[in-house]
Each structure stands twice: as structure tokens, then as C-alpha cells.
Write a sequence for this structure.
């Protein structure tokens, strides 16, 4: 693939503006690009040529003629580069190769316990990633970057896990450096729920700028989209709702060391433990969801109660954050309407009518792919932003 040299300092914003205009997939003429971006036609011509050389833009079918030669049209080229997107779960790895609009080209799934430690897990990630790239007919030279979602707190600036409760041996581990050294591409790491929130928003709710994504699985967490952007907070732990203490949480011990946390009451692991204690075998949140779908009354009651507990925390968030959509994902969300019904019951009861007038509370539409789609968008949006686009065009 042909590359162009580095952009001078001034043109970066203009090049990014042209690229942003065509990323919706609709071909445009240079005149249309000039009108949309406010750039001079000569400037647009220069920027288009740079993007054509990079492969990020391609020539499309000519536009309609108004009497002379039909004008040339230009469109975004999603196939110019690929992205590796990785979802590391408590007990699984899901890896996808995507194009530059986040569409999955190929993917793989493996059972893998995160407690095996960072080196074992990440070596497996790199092995599977290399085989998926080969299967898709691409290689590491085509990589725009690698995005990874981890099931624990991550310091966003460094990409290192920070005291992750279910990830022994991962604290402070240089995840980006380990993967980058093996696959040779920029590697970004975030909490898996942030990746899910981003993936859900970009693929299904792009016109809803304020969204809360709740992952209800072994544990409980949330990701926040504010003004269309992922909100991480000052240390990257915004949305950690699983460790909000419930009024009726009693003395339920939480893995964080406190008692009465939402996760200790309503998380999949807590519900599975209660069912098992009552003689109903359940090891995971998926087991709990399957029992509820099958009509197990104890499972249905506990899942519905978990929804009410989650709704108790979300009711406060709705009043404070005022989202227009709340998306419920994770293993427990597969229990049919039981979990979401409990959430809706409490949120609509306790929140102000104005805050809930246009509020949708729905099950995840992205499903199992939410995290890998979000991990891909994390890479794409960074690489194509004005600050980083010159790096891409210089390679």
C-alpha cells in the first residue's frame, strides 16, 4: 500500500475534516467536500490526493454530468487497514479482525481463565490474533492498531490494570507494551465495560449522545457516553456502579473488601451462589440466565430482584446524568425480560418524570460483539483524529 510523507503542521485539521466528511460512506465530489468543510477547492484537492495515496480514500463512480465531463467522486475506503479487537473476559477470549468502520471480518472465541495471569492470557491472544489475520488474508503490516478490553479497572493513560479484583497477577502489568512487542502495532487498553458502551453506541445509538451501558454478568459495571464521547473520569474508573452500596445490601460481602455492594447482591456470581445453596446448580451468570429462561421460579425471582437492585442505583444516575437510553448487556441480560423488567420498575418509579420522559431502557443490540466492536472503534477514532492522522499518513 502506497503511503505519503508526513503532513506539515497546518494541513492536519483540514485533512481530518475531509476524511470525517466521507466516513459516512457517501461518495462526494471535491466541490461538495469544499462546501461541507469550508476549505478552498485547491486545499480540498491537495488533501484528497494525500488521502488517496494513503489508501484511506478511494475513487468512486463519477457524479452526474451537468454538461461537461462528469465530476470525480471520492469515498472512504474501509478496507485500507485492519484492526485487531480483543475482549478478555473472566473466562473467555473473543478476538475480531475488523475494517475501518468496525465491521467484523473474521473472529475467534476461546475459553480462557483470566486468573491464568497476564503472560499466559496475552500470549494466547497474540497467537489467536496472528492466525485470524492470516485467515483474513492480511498481516501485521496492515494493522491500524489493537484495542483490548479487560474485565477490571484500567488506568487509561498507561493501559495498565489497577488492582483488578478478579485478575490476580495483572496489577500494573504493561499490557500495551507486551502486545505491541509481539504484534508490532499501537495497542490501546480499557475496561471492558467502556469498550461495550462505545461499541453499543457507535453501532446502534449514534444519534443518542447520552447513554449508560450496564454490564450485568459475574460482576456489575457501567460505561458512560456523554455528548457522544466515552466518559472515563479523571482516573478512568467512571461508571463503577457495582461497588455502590445498597440501602438493603445488609452484610453481603463483596470481593472489593466492602459489604453491601450492588455486585455482591445482584451480580451473577452472587445469584449463582444463592441458587446453589438452595440445591439448584449454577456456576455462572450464563447458568442463571438459562435457568430463568427455562422458567425456574427461584432463578426468575432472584433475577427480577437483581434488576430492582440495579434499578435502585440507576435511578440516582438517571437524575444526575439524565441519559436518553440505558442499555443492559452481559450474561444476566440473557434472562429474557426478567432483569430489565426489574430495572424499569424501579427507575420509572423513583426518577422524575422529566428525566424519564424520553428514556429507553433496552437490552443490548450489539450482544456478544459489543466489546470487540468498541475496542475497534477505540483504535479507529484515535488513529483518524486530527492529532494522530499525520502519524498514519507518514507510515
Amino acid at each position: 500500500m502506497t503511503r505519503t510523507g508526513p503532513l506539515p503542521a497546518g494541513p492536519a485539521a483540514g485533512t481530518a475534516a475531509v476524511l470525517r466528511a466521507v466516513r459516512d460512506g457517501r461518495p462526494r465530489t471535491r466541490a461538495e467536500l469544499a462546501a461541507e468543510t469550508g476549505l478552498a477547492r485547491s486545499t480540498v484537492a491537495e488533501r484528497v490526493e494525500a488521502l488517496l495515496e494513503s489508501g484511506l480514500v478511494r475513487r468512486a463512480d463519477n457524479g452526474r454530468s451537468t454538461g461537461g465531463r462528469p465530476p470525480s467522486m471520492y469515498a472512504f475506503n474501509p478496507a485500507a487497514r485492519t484492526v485487531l479487537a480483543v475482549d478478555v473476559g473472566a473466562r473467555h477470549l473473543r478476538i475480531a479482525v475488523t475494517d475501518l468502520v468496525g465491521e467484523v471480518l473474521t473472529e475467534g472465541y476461546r475459553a480462557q481463565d483470566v486468573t491464568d495471569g497476564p503472560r499466559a492470557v496475552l500470549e494466547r491472544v497474540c497467537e489467536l490474533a496472528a492466525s485470524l489475520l492470516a485467515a483474513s488474508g492480511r498481516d501485521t503490516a496492515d494493522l491500524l492498531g489493537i484495542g483490548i478490553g479487560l474485565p477490571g479497572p484500567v488506568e487509561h493513560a498507561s493501559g495498565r490494570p489497577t488492582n483488578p479484583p478478579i485478575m490476580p497477577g495483572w496489577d500494573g502489568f504493561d499490557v500495551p507494551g507486551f502486545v505491541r512487542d509481539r504484534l508490532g502495532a499501537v495497542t490501546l487498553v480499557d475496561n471492558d465495560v467502556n469498550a461495550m458502551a462505545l461499541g453499543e453506541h457507535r453501532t446502534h445509538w449514534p444519534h443518542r449522545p447520552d447513554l449508560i451501558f450496564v454490564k450485568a454478568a459475574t460482576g456489575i459495571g457501567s460505561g458512560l457516553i456523554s455528548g457522544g464521547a466515552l466518559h472515563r473520569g479523571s482516573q478512568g474508573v467512571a461508571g463503577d456502579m457495582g461497588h455502590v452500596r445498597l440501602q438493603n445490601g445488609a452484610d453481603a460481602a463483596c470481593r472489593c473488601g466492602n459489604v453491601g455492594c450492588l455486585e455482591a447482591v445482584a451480580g451473577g456470581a452472587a445469584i449463582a451462589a444463592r441458587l446453589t445453596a438452595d440445591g439448584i446448580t449454577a456456576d455462572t451468570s450464563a447458568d442463571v440466565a438459562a435457568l430463568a429462561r427455562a422458567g425456574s421460579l427461584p432463578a426468575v425471582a432472584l433475577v427480577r430482584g437483581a434488576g430492582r437492585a440495579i434499578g435502585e442505583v440507576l435511578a440516582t444516575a438517571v437524575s444526575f446524568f439524565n441519559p436518553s437510553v440505558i442499555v443492559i448487556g452481559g450474561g444476566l441480560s440473557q434472562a429474557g425480560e426478567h432483569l430489565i423488567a426489574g430495572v424499569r420498575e424501579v427507575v420509572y418509579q423513583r426518577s422524575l418524570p422529566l428525566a424519564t420522559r424520553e428514556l429507553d431502557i433496552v437490552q443490548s443490540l450489539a450482544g456478544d460483539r459489543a466489546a470487540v466492536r468498541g475496542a475497534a472503534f477505540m483504535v479507529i477514532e484515535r488513529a483518524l483524529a486530527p492529532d494522530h492522522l499525520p502519524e498514519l499518513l507518514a507510515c
In short: Confidence is low (pLDDT under 50) at residues 1-9. The chain has three domains: 11-78, 80-196+371-394, 206-365.
